[in-house]
Amino acid sequence: MNSKVYLRGMLLLVISCFLILKPAFSQTKVTIQGVVKDEQGGILPGASVTVADSKQGTVTDDKGAFSITVDAGKNLLINYLGYQSKTYPVSKTETITIVLAAQENTMNTVVVIGYGTQKKSSVTGSVARLSNDNLNQIPVSRADQALAGKLAGVQIQTTDATAGAAPVIRIRGAASITAGTNPLIVIDGYPVPTDLSSVDMNNVESIEVLKDAASAAIYGSRGANGVILITSKSGKNGKTVVGLNTSAGFKEVYRRLDFPTLSQWSEHVKSVNNGVLSPELLAAQQFDVPTDPQDIVFRNGSFQNAQVNVSGGTEKVKYYVSGEALFDKGVIATNNYKRYGGQANIDITPNKKWKIGLSITPSYTLQDAPVYKVHDLLRSFATWLPLYATQNISDATGLPVGNIVHQRAFDPATNPRYKGINLSATANNNGYSNLYGINNRISISKTLANANVQYNFSEALSLKVSGGAFISNSRNDFFQKSWATRDPFLQGAAVAQASTKGSLANSETIDLLNENILNYTKSFGKHDLNVIAGFTAQTTKITSSSASATNFSTDEIPTLNAGTMSSLTSNIEKNALASVLFRANYAYDNKYLISIGSRWDGSSRFGADNRWGYFPSASIGWRVSNENFYDRDAFVNDLKIRMSYGATGNNNIGNYRAFANVNTVGAILGDATSLGFNSSFYDNPDLGWERSFSLNAGVDMAFLKNRFTLTVDAYRSTTKDLLFFLPINTITGSNGVWTNIGEVQNQGLEIELGAKIIDNESFKWNLSANAATNKNKVKALGNSNSIISIGDPKRLNYFLAQVGQPLVQFYGYEYDRDIEVGGSYWPTNVHSDRIIARDMNGDGVVNEQDRVVLGQPTPKFTWGLTSNLKYKDFDLSFVLQGSHGASVFNADPNYYETQFSATGTSAYLSLPKDLQAKTKYKTESRYSIEDASFIALRSLNLGYTLNAKWLSAIKASNLRVYASAANLWYKFAKGYSSYNPEGVNEYTDDPLKNGYQRGSAPITRNITFGINANF
Known about the structure:
Layout: H1 3-26, E1 29-38, E2 48-51, E3 57-59, E4 65-71, E5 75-79, E6 86-89, E7 94-100, E8 110-113, E9 116-119, E10 127-131, E11 154-157, E12 168-171, E13 184-187, E14 190-192, E15 204-210, H2 213-216, E16 227-232, E17 238-253, H3 262-272, H4 279-284, H5 293-297, E18 301-313, E19 317-329, E20 336-348, E21 354-368, H6 374-379, H7 391-397, H8 431-436, E22 438-456, E23 461-480, H9 493-498, E24 501-524, E25 527-550, E26 564-588, E27 592-603, E28 612-623, E29 636-650, E30 661-669, E31 672-681, E32 690-703, E33 708-720, E34 723-727, E35 736-740, E36 743-759, E37 763-780, E38 786-790, E39 798-802, E40 809-812, E41 815-818, E42 830-832, E43 834-837, E44 852-855, E45 861-871, E46 874-884, E47 887-890, H10 892-896, E48 898-900, H11 906-909, H12 913-916, E49 919-921, E50 929-931, E51 934-945, H13 948-954, E52 958-966, E53 970-972, E54 996-997, E55 1004-1014
Parallel strand pairs: 1-7, 13-16, 42-48, 47-54
Antiparallel strand pairs: 1-4, 2-3, 2-5, 5-6, 8-9, 10-15, 11-12, 13-14, 15-16, 17-18, 17-55, 18-19, 19-20, 20-21, 21-22, 22-23, 23-24, 24-25, 25-26, 26-27, 27-28, 28-29, 29-32, 30-31, 32-33, 33-36, 34-35, 36-37, 37-45, 38-39, 39-40, 40-44, 41-43, 43-49, 45-46, 46-51, 47-50, 51-52, 51-53, 52-55
C-alpha cells in the first residue's frame, strides 16, 4: 500500500474518532464538593457557586459547604459579596477548599470597635476607618496631623503650626461649654489621658473613629466628644522581616506679609500730606537700613525621620519591635522638636486555651518652644532699623557698633545719650532678643505598657484580663537672659541682672488600668451572637511642682540656685473611675442586625450623691441586599440601612470641683496680719455627669459591582446637664459653685464616597471623598438667655452665647469707616486704633444696644478628597481639604499696624461731636472679623517601587522611594490678612471664646524625600 495513502487514512481515522468521542467526553459528569472560606479561615455562608456561561449554580450552606455536579472541562465561578471572585477549572470529581480574598474598598473591611472588632458590613453605628496605606509618608511630625481631610465629621485644625504642637481635633462639633471638647484617645485598647504626640505613624496599623453615641457609649463617661482608636502593627507568622522607613526634607513659610519700609511709608505720607514729611520721618532717614522682620524671625526649616522595625513569628509567638528618631526644625527661629520612640508587641499562643499579649511603647520628646507669639516677635521691629548698630547709630545713641538695637535707644527718656527727636514706638525688645535671649525647653517622657491574658473556656467563651500603666514625666525649663528683658538697658548691668528670671516646672502622671472582659461569640444556624461584659478600674495620680527665681548673677548659669528664689509650689491630684460594661451584637441571616450596650461609670470627680452615670445605647441595621427578593446584580449591589441612639458622658472638669476649695487670705487683726482661709467655690454633692444623647441614621451602599461605595450619616446630638461654673456674689464669701445647667445641640450630615475608577493589573486609580456639615445650637443656659464673654480686656472683644443660636458668635459693632490719623504720620504704618461704628438703632449714639452678631467660628461645610493612582511600579496620591463658612477674630492687624489711640490725635478731636460719639475700638467691631475659609493640598505623594529584578539584586522583599509634599498649595479666603486661617490659638480651652487668633505661627510648605523598604 502506498505509504502516503496509508498515512492519510490513519489521519482521517484519528480525526473521526476524536470528533465522535469529543461529545461523549464533554458530557462526562463530575461532582465537586467544597467549602468556601475567607483568608482568616472563616466560613462564608451564602457564597455563590455557578457554572461559567450557564444558569446552573448553587450557594454555600451555613457551614460554607457546597456540592455541585457539572460537566468536566467547565469552570466554576465563586462569588461572595465583599470578596474577590475566583475561577476554578473542573476536571474530575474531588473535594476542594476555596479561599476568597477580601475585596478592597468595600463594606466588608474589619473595623476596630470598643473592646473588639466587627465587619463593617455588620456595624450599626457610625464608625470611620483609616488603614495606614501611606499616612506614614506625609511629611508631618505628629500622627494627628496626617488625618487632616481624611474623615467626614472629623476636623483637624492646625491652630499652632510650630514644630511639635498639637492640632485641635473636633468630632461632630463642640458639645460642651467648660468640660472640654477633645476626643478620647485609645491606644491598643488603653484610654490614655493625653494626645497623640507619642504615636509614630510607622507603627500604626489602622485608625478608627467612633463618632456616634451608640459606638462611643462603650466608653461611657469619656465618649461624649468621640473616640479615636489607634491599633498598632503586630507580628505575623513567617520569617523575620526587617523594615526601614526613613525620610528627610525641608519646609518654609507659605505666605509672607508686606511690612512697609521707611521709604515706602514716606511716599505714602507725601501722597496724603501735600508732599510734606514729618520731623520724625526726616530724622529716621539718616538711620534707615531697610529690614524685613520676617527675615529675622523666620527661617527655612528641615525634617528628618528614621524608623527600623523587626517582625515575624511562629504559630505560638509573634513579635513586632521598632525604634524611631525624628527631628523637626521649625520655621520660627529657635523652634525645634525631637522625638525618640519605640514599640514592642509580643503575642504568645502556647495552646488553644491561652493567649498572652505584651506591649510597651516608650517615647521621649524635646521641644524648644518660642515664648512669644509671632505678632510679638514681629511688631517690635522697626523696618528702618538694622538688627545690629551701625556707626551712625552708635554715634547717635552711644550703643557700641554691632550691639543689638532696640527702638527705645531712640527715646531720650530712656537713653540720655540720645539727643534727637523721639523715634521709639515701643519699649518692647525686638524679636531677636525675645527668640535668642529666652530658653524655653519642654521635655516629656511617656511609657505605655500593657499586658493581657486571655483564657478560652471554649471556642465561644473567653475571658481577657489586662493590666497596664501609662506614665508621663514632663519638665519645663525657662530662662530669660539679662539682655532679653524690657528694662532700660542703658542704666547699668545691675538693673538688667535684677530682671533676669528663670523657672522649673515638673509634672508626673501615673495612670493605672485594669480591665476584665468576658467575650461570648457563637454562630448557630442563621444566628450570629457576640456578647461582652466586663469590669474596669482606672486611677490617675498627678504630682506637680514648680519653682522660680530672679536676679541671676550671670547669664551663663541658668540653674535656679544661681538666682534669688521667688516662689515654690507643689500639688498632688488624684482621680478614679470604675466601670461596668455590657454589649450584645446579634445578626440574623446576615440581614437583620441589632446591638445594645450599657455602661455604668462612677467618677471620684463628682459629688458623693451623684457619682454614678448610666450610658445605654442601641442600634439596628438591615442589610437589604441580602434579602432573597433583592437583585444583587442591580445598580446598587450592596445596601444596608442603620439607626442608632445612645448616651455618652463627660467628666473632664478637673479634680475636686464638687468639693469646697479654699484659698489662703490675709486678715488684719489689730496691728497684725493673720493668715486664714476662704472658699474659692462651694461644694455641690449633687454635681454629676454631663450627658450627651445622640440619634444617628445612616445608609451604607456599594454599587456597580462594588466599584463605588457610599456612606451617608445624619445625626443629632444633645448635651444636657452641662458642667458649668455658676458665679455668685463674692459677698457670700465664695466666687461660685460648679453645677449642672444648660443644653447644647449639634446636628449635621456626613457623606463618604469611595470609587475604583480604574482597576486592572497594571493601572489602578481609587478616589475617596468626604463632606460634612455641622450646625451648633444652644438650647438652654440655666436661668440666663445669653452669656457675653470678654476675650482680651486690654483690646476689647466680645463673644456671645445665646439660646437658639450657635454656642459661640462674634459680637460687637458694625464697621462704618476708618478714622484718618493725620498729624505726624509717625511711626511707619501708623493707624488709628478706633473706627467709626454704625448706629444700628438710629438713636444718634453708638452704645451696647447697637452691638450685633458679626460671625461665628464653626465651619458650615468641610470636605476632603483623596486620590490614589498606581501605574505599574509608579504611584501618585494626594489629599485635598476644604473648610468653608467659618470666621476668625483676627487680632494680628491690630499689632502689625502701629495703633495710635484716636483720642490722642488731632484727627479724633477734629471730628464732629456726633462722630466722636460713634467711635469704637477696631477690636470691638467687624473690622477684626475675617473669613477663615481655605482650600489646601494637604499632601502630594509620588513613589516608585522597585521591580523584582532590582529587589533580587539588593536582597529586599520590597523597596519604595518617594517624594512627598504638604501644603504645596493653600488657597486663602479673600480678605484674610494673616498667616494661618486655622490658627485659633487663644482661649483654646474655653469653648465660649472659640475663634480668637493672635500671633499664630504660619502655615508651612513641606517637601520630603523618603524610602520604605523590607528585607
